[in-house]
Design a protein that fits this description.
The protein has 90 residues and is an all-alpha fold. Helix content is 61%, strand content 0%. Residues 34-38 have low confidence and may be disordered. It binds zinc ion.
């Protein structure tokens, strides 16, 4: 049995443990209507999941995950702005 890619727990099926497999599935469901402008949002969701998974005991890991989420959120906001000023329909 192999270990989960994100934590040291044994992987249930594939490279992820049961909890991470469910999270991955949920993230995919959230990003299903994939269009160009949702790319950024999918990334925000991924980073939010990453932050939730970050060890609370490891300050550096937690800060790095929080920083990734902040950058993804900013990038997403910029994408929305760009879409709007380019005359995109919402
Ligand atoms: Zn895991």
């Amino acid at each position: 049995m192999t270990a989960c890619l994100f934590c040291a727990k044994p992987a249930a099926r594939g490279p992820l443990c049961e909890a991470h497999r469910k999270r991955r599935q949920r993230a995919q469901v959230l990003s299903l209507p994939v269009r160009e402008r949702y790319q950024g949002w999918s990334r925000v969701v991924e980073c939010a999941i990453g932050l939730a998974d970050a060890s609370a005991e490891d300050d550096r890991e937690f800060e790095r995950a929080a920083d990734r989420l902040r950058k993804a959120a900013l990038a997403y906001a910029h994408e929305l702005e760009a879409t709007r000023s380019a005359g995109g329909c919402g």
